[in-house]
Amino acid sequence: MSLTNEIIKEKLIGKFGDQLSNFEEPYGLLGFEAPKDLNLKVMQFLYDDPELRFQFLTDLCAVNYPTLPGRELAVVYHLHNLVENVRIRFKVFTPVEKPDVFTATQLYSSANWMERETYDFFGVNFLGHPNLKRILNVEEMDYFPMRKEFPLEDQTRVDKDDAMFGR
Amino acid sequence: MSTDHHIKLPEGSIEKTTTTLNLGPTHPATHGVFQNILELDGERIVSAEQTVGYIHRAFEKLAERRPLYQITTLTDRLNYCSSPINNMGWHLTCEKLLGVKTPKRVDYLRIIIMELSRISDHLICNSVMGVDSGAFTGFLYVMQYRELIYEIYEEICGSRLTTNIGRIGGFERNFNATAFEKLERFLAEYPGVLKEFEKLFTRNRIFMERTIGAGPISAERALNYGFTGPNLRAAGVDYDVRYHTPYSSYEDFEFEIPVGKTGDSYDRFLVRNQEMWQSLHLIRQAYRKVQEFKGADAEVYHADAPAYYLPEKKDVYTKMEALIWHFKIVMGETEIPPGEVYHSVEGGNGELGFYLISDGGRTPYRLHFRRPCFIYYQAYSELTKGAMLSDAVIVMSSLNLIAGEMDA
Asked: What is the CATH T-level fold of the domain B51-407, as seen in this structure?
């Protein structure tokens, strides 16, 4: 038996109906979006379902979209079914004022540090995390450096008039 | 002896019954900047808390303003024991996003390089395990052959440790005769060396007693902890990105995936040794395939993707078109198509993934590295719980932790 993206999609829609949205398949990888309150339910379903069995958390990270009001932060999960060798990606969006997302540490031990890293750089507050504190940055830091509000200088900028060093 | 000699402390004055020991961050046995705060009961480890981040360099942030080809140098500095794999993984990610199809010869050359660096990676890890258990000889002996691998890199890209090898679409230049000569020498001499290396360790009683049963993990726990690479395979799960999601034409090759049973340090060592034999086997196959290309095909070393592949310098100086492309690429005039791509390769210590989001600008909108050892290092406290203090060191070196990769 082979698990195709269509089967996964059907099963997910059968379970969660139209709460899941934005199904897409960039480069053959099924991706979708879930409401942030449902992230654990979706993951648990993907984990437990005898056909889906997405029991390996490949990656967890966040993306900042300052231009989308109410959806500034996205947490992206990459899950892998190692038996059928199928990957999926799903995202939950959260407003930056209240960046609360449920933790996945109960399901995947590997989520522990990945969530700490995500918190460290984006300030996503993982509810229920056993030890949510900074991991790569110093603990005294009071901002979340990977957010787009902290831009790096653009090397191709044109507004800088520097005749000596010429940009 | 009478009891008078014992120190008498007032009732209830001892609150702590364990000793706290800081192992690292600059301990000679930790191979990199790792700190472990161990709680010890005598010599038994009660708990371990890992601190990471000492060499965090904000690569993900830096990548957000760099054009694709400049990010290659950042990937070098992740797992610096096998930088070519990181470089190739990054090029493959870009090629997937840009839709560049590489010729077969490029794929095979890449496999030669990737497998060489896998050997050098495993070689370091395994020989350092020897050092940590008291056998320095093996380490010094195999260093010569890592040197030979580095000389091969040098012929191809000009540098040794942080290689910046290859370009999006292929290599910056063809392999020269010296590179192939050195490769042949390596293929001829290395099997004997590896055999001797195995003779030094595999059935060495001291080594076996130090490593067998040190830091074991079951397959379920390993999967739950996100283990990949040799560490997962040592626990008995035959997951290998090269086989399950072939990239760079790995599907054209025959190789075995060695697995262990108990997931302890000894199994991890054995799996890595077996993988070195498989890598040698792969290099031989790839080299044979490369030799089969004749005439003009034997000169192909990059894809035909002028919008992303930097043209050769001599063409830039003599040909109009090459000059235009060079200018466009260097000045950042070639835009990346919008898209979202996850690509992973089998790195030296596990699945190395690149999650790239492009919004159509000149630089990635977001780039995330899935760094295998960052993910599996969190299992360390579980692996060492109840073990002896000396096991803490050997378990750490058997996990193949690379500080540069962990801290990104």
From this structure: Cytochrome-c3 Hydrogenase; chain B (1.10.645)
